[in-house]
Specification:
By secondary structure, the chain is an alpha/beta fold. It folds into two domains: about 5-140 and about 265-305, Rossmann fold (3-Layer(aba) Sandwich); about 145-260, 3-Layer(aba) Sandwich (Rossmann fold). The chain contains ten helices and eleven strands. It has helices spanning about 20-30, 45-50, 80-95, 105-115, 145-165, 180-185, 200-215, 235-245, 265-285, 315-325; strands spanning about 5-10, 35-40, 50-55, 100-105, 125, 165-170, 190-195, 220-225, 250-255, 290-295, 295-300. The strands form two sheets. Strands 3-2-1-4-5-10-11 form a seven-stranded mixed beta sheet, sandwiched between helices. Strand 4 (about 100-105), helix 4 and strand 5 (about 125) form a beta-alpha-beta unit. Helix 5 (about 145-165) crosses helix 6 (about 180-185). About 45% of the residues are buried.
Length: about 325
């Protein structure tokens, strides 16, 4: 779109480390190509309300290292309705916005898909979610930082567990996806890892505990994704307590700590690459796609093909878990 003059950018859904790095890349690349950039506060809610402001280089100064999002974010029930999307369209036309950059997860990307099915304003999506559960990219913005945050927290929990000869059940985020639990569990030497994609084998867990305690281990760590089919860390711990009432056990829910904090080097680089690539795609005439990176290459995926992806446990991954938990 060589005649493109004005674009808008918004962040939608839950926050994730690296959002500000991506915003910075989009704004700086737009300025390089002499495009006006309008920021939209509060995601789709701000789009409906016309909560717009002009962005420049000063707006994104010194934000690459900051967690959260300077644009703020929200989830919008109004945007899910045709009436809400029509209000948003009117606000965009009033501001003479010609294209939109959305940084969001699968729900936000679904919202953009619904919008583009009715209104002819080009959208470019950039995937962010700590769950890493969006197809069309190897990694999403925020995933690397979230796993490192969880790893560091569980390392500290291990210190307490060893001091008290205690079993800890640590719950990490991942309502529909086990990416965080699997990667974190391997990195901290967890004795067991439970994720939404697999059945929970409690008998195997009982066997692991019996072996561990018989070997006089000082601690045991079980990492559980919040979407585990048994019902999370508390439910699993209750079942283990019924089997081994004599064991000292505790549950720790890491929760939203995983979504905050300064983004890692990997997330800053990924966010910057995707932000630059989003503007480049617009200038080449691309529209209604999501920008991703697969094996180092920038990939375009049509919005209508965006779905959730799930962690596929291979025999090699199972072996890794089984061997290292002994």
């Amino acid at each position: 779109m060589s005649n493109l003059k004005k674009i808008a950018i918004l962040t939608s859904g839950g926050d994730a480390p690296g959002l500000n790095a991506c915003i910075r890349a989009v704004v700086r690349t737009s300025i390089f190509h002499k495009l006006d950039v309008i920021g939209i506060h509060r995601g789709y809610e701000g789009m409906i309300d016309g909560d717009f402001f002009k962005m420049d280089a000063t707006t994104v100064s010194n934000i690459i290292q900051r967690g959260g999002t300077i644009l703020k974010s929200s989830r919008s029930e109004r945007f899910k309705t045709p009436e809400g999307r029509e209000l948003a369209y009117r606000q965009l036309k009033k501001e003479e916005i010609e294209a939109i950059i959305l940084i969001g997860g699968d729900g936000s990307l679904a919202g953009s898909k619904a919008f583009t099915s009715t209104y002819n304003i080009p959208w470019i999506g950039i995937p962010k979610t700590i769950d890493n559960d969006i197809i069309g990219t190897d990694f999403t913005i925020g995933y690397d930082t979230a796993t490192n945050t969880a790893m560091e927290a569980i390392d500290k929990i291990r210190d307490t567990a060893e001091s008290h000869n205690r079993i800890y059940f640590v719950e990490v985020m991942g309502r529909d996806s086990g990416f965080i639990a699997y990667k974190t569990g391997i990195s901290v030497g967890a004795e067991a890892i439970y994720i939404p994609e697999t059945k929970t084998d409690l008998q195997r867990l009982f066997s692991i505990f019996e072996k561990g305690w018989n070997r006089k281990k000082n601690s045991l760590i079980v990492v559980v994704a919040e979407g585990n089919e048994v019902g999370g860390a508390f439910k699993i711990s209750e079942k283990v307590k019924e089997k081994f009432p004599e064991y000292d056990m505790a549950v720790c829910i890491l929760g939203h700590i995983q979504r905050g904090g300064s983004p890692s080097c990997s997330d800053r680089v990924l966010a910057s690459k995707l932000g630059v690539s989003a503007i480049n795609a617009l200038l080449k005439g691309e529209k209604n796609i999501m920008i991703g990176e697969i094996k180092g290459d920038i990939i375009y995926t049509p919005l209508e093909k965006i779905t959730k992806k799930h962690l596929e446990i291979t025999p090699a991954m199972n072996e890794l878990i089984n061997v290292l938990s002994n």
